[in-house]
Amino acid sequence: MPYPAGASSPSGRARVVLPRRDRREIAAIFAGGALGTAARAGLAEAFPHSATQWPWPTFTVNIVAAFLLGYFVTRLQERLPLSSYRRPLLGTGLCGGLSTFSTMQVEILKMLSAHAWGLAAGYIAASVVAGYAAIHLATALVRRVRVRR
Amino acid sequence: MNVLIWVAVALIGGAGSVARFLLDGVVSAAAERDFPFGTMAVNISGAVILGLLSGLALGHTEALLAGTAAVGSYTTFSTWMLETQRLAEERQYRKAIANVVVSLVLGVAAAALGQLIGTHL
Predict the structure, then answer these.
(1) How far apart are CA B52 and CA B111, in angstroms?
(2) What integer pLDDT is reported at residue A146 of this predicted model?
(3) Which of A111, B80, B82, B104 is the most exposed place for a label (fewest CB within 10 A)?
(4) Sign of the alpha-carbon torsion through A90, A92, A97, A101
């Protein structure tokens, strides 16, 4: 489900040049991303941890962002009328900026370098299982509400 | 930690998110397959860059701006998980598992490669 920048192009070809109508979408992604990043960075600064401690800040933002993305995407795609800026603002921007893959990988690398094998395995497993479950749960929640109405 | 740094964190985070959107779009359109190559390309390239930054031994503020804000916002965990769950929902289990395993293996390898380059710079 990637959402290509050039999805609305009649030719369907990849374009690097930004069409005019996408400017609002880009602005929404920028605003959401700024907010999500500030929240994640604030949490990371407030709760520093060593390489061999459980990375609670990253783990927390990733699972919360996964839940929110599952909620937003399901609701916006299957429930609310099409909007030009909600998904880029809340999904691509806010949830994308709030969650991070690269920090998780570097944290795993540092755990492996410190020979904390169990911690690394536990962190990977917990992130994938909880992240997947969060998406699944949020999706089911939105769909259940829809059926009841 | 002053206000200016936090304004910079937010602005850089916004730019990182837009960069993710643009690269994802270009890669997804070029790949044109039912597999989230766009997110994978973003995440693996981000892991290389963050690994490199961690190898450079930057100061606290530099690491916050370049690492946490720029590369952190550029990569995404939530979309990776969403795309995995949607693949599984469509009973494309092999692709779902491949998306998780390949991202993790390449992600750690990319971070290690970046760190190796960073420590030798």
Answers:
(1) 7
(2) 56
(3) B104
(4) positive
The b/e string for A112-122 (b: 16+ C-beta within 10 A; e otherwise) is beeebeebbee
Q: Check whether B34 has a pLDDT greater than 80.
A: yes
Please give, rounded to a whole number of angstroms, the shortest distance from the CA of B53 to a CA of chain A: 10
Measured between alpha carbons, how far is A56 from A48 in angstroms, rounded to an integer? 9
Residue percentage of chain A with pLDDT more than 70: 81
Q: Is A1 exposed, middle or buried (0-12, 13-18, 19+ CB in 10 A)?
A: middle
At residue A90, what is the residue type?
L
CB B102 within 8 A of CB B47: no
The DSSP 8-state label assigned to residue B59 in this structure reads -
Cβ neighbours of B74 in A, within 8 Å: 102
Name the residue type at position A16.
V
Token pair recorded at residue B38: 């766009």
The pLDDT assigned to A19 comes to 57
Euclidean distance between CA atoms B85 and B67, whole angstroms: 28
Q: Using alpha carbons only, how large is chain A's radius of gyration in Å?
A: 18
From the list B1, B11, B51, the residue facing A45 with the nearest CB is B1
Question: Both tokens of residue B91?
Answer: 């009973």
Nearest to B99 by CA among B83, B110, B111, B112: B83
Which residue shows structure tokens 């806010």?
A94
Q: How many other CB atoms are found less than 10 A from the CB of residue B4?
A: 8
B22, B48, B56, B82, best to mutate vs chain A, most A CBs in 10 Å: B82
